[in-house]
Amino acid sequence: MIKTVKLNFTETGRLDLPMNGITVFVGPNNSGKSLVLREIEQVFEVHPFPAGLHIVTDYDVEWPSLADVQAALSKIKKTQPRTTPIGQVVLSRVHPSHGRQATGHDEGSLLGIVQAQADKNWITTQYFKFGVLRLDGRSRFNLTNDQTAGDLTADAGNVLSHLFKDDDARRKVREFVFDAFGTYFVVDPTNLGQLRIKLSDEKPAKDEQSLNAKARAYYSRATYIKEASDGVQAFTGIVTAVLSGEYHTLLIDEPEAFLHPPLARKLGKNLASLASEGGGALVASTHSADFLMGCVQASKTVRVVRLEYSKGKSRARAIDPTDLTDLLTRPLMRSANVISGLFHDGVVVLESDNDRAFYSEIYHRIAQTRSNYPAILFINAQNKQTIRDIIGPLRRFGVPAAAIPDIDIVKDGGKTWTDWLKASQVPEALHLGYGQTRSAIDMALRATGKDMKTDGGVDLLGSSDEAAANRLFDDLDSFGIFAVRRGELENWLAHLGVLGKKTDWTVAMLERLGSDPNHATYVKPAAGDVWAFMERIVRWITDSSRRGMPS
After folding, report:
1. What is the rounded end-to-end Cα distance, in angstroms, of the chain?
2. Which residues pair with 213 in a beta bridge?
3. Where are the domains of the chain?
4. Could you give the angle at the alpha carbon of 270 between the alpha carbons of 266 and 272, nearest 5°?
């Protein structure tokens, strides 16, 4: 099979992607996830190597041994048509959308190429390709269509005839479907000449392929798959397709389509388990954190690659499996839904849920007035200190994660301050200078005798100290740390006259902002204040040359 695919991205250069095990592409919409899968499929399908690919530039193969190929051909020849000429071998696969696909080869020539190891493109497109299956969202519901039974004494011509004949594969499908829905998957042969999928509350008899009266009554009581929900059809269709042949490489685009989160997680676990058990490759493109988590449940070595594409520039960052496991297993990360940040253009991390509710509403109102605004996830980190515990891993994964702490971040000295700078990828050479400036500003704010959070923030300072504070905060902004210079959340939009603290203020403010854009009292984005603050954050997230991201 293919050993490594070489991918190229305009901003991050070449990425050598191993094709063994489990690889999941994540990222925001239009980041290139589906394109990568299509191009990998073309490597298997097009001879000579296809020109005009945008991402895949080359690949390496792991040549099979001559003995392994001879053993495989011997197995194939036992089932191939008697009319096959001597010295020829017919390679085939059951494709869910196109039925049986077959190509005849001169056995001697095939073995000669394997022995010489001289033409990787030929062996990939003429031999390896028969173990490849790609599924996309558009064909999802066709996977459960009725199919002709055909000649059951010959090679299966489609997915259902294969499953009807292969007891082990059928039982595996049944196992997955029962685990997901609590019903039994069966292939109903009673419509003579046609096979159809049904689901039954009753366990099938041992002789489930019988057409006697008892079997006919059993199938008549079962539910036709087309009468089931979209989720049941989508899940069952993928599982039946994957188990309908001996595939070494599965390329699956948006496997979570039409599935509720628990089903997406089960599907991820099932597909990853199949790939791991068979020593093959699963390459999936997904928008679902649940599908990804299901894959990680089945294998601790899941390879995740996050893609970005904007303004003609593409990026890719491979995520270390250990870091990914840490992200998925730490209670803080799970409770804050941090993993979903992988699927957004950017993330904003806040101190509390009150902050999250307010800033996300402000962003929503601005985005309504702009076209092509980024998809941003707002996350509640529970407190100021844990903000940096979240932005650090997300940035290492290639996600531009901005932080919004209150002004009292300047109180965080020593290791706490250094940890902020490290999480934000501030060069170490700047740590000492920023630390000294932070300390001086903290002392100046304390010297006013006022509360820096509630009484005015940087406006409490004299002109020179205020200029120094703004210079520090400007620098922190450039690294994605956006301190509230006015002090804290409750100091925004003061002209609206909303009083209270914490949750009381947030609830009252959201009510005051209004819900009907056509109402006279509905508050729309304006110049300055929190609107300009949010615009700065958006500019940092969308700036491809932003500071604060790992190189």
Report:
1. 33
2. none
3. 66-116, 153-237, 330-542
4. 115
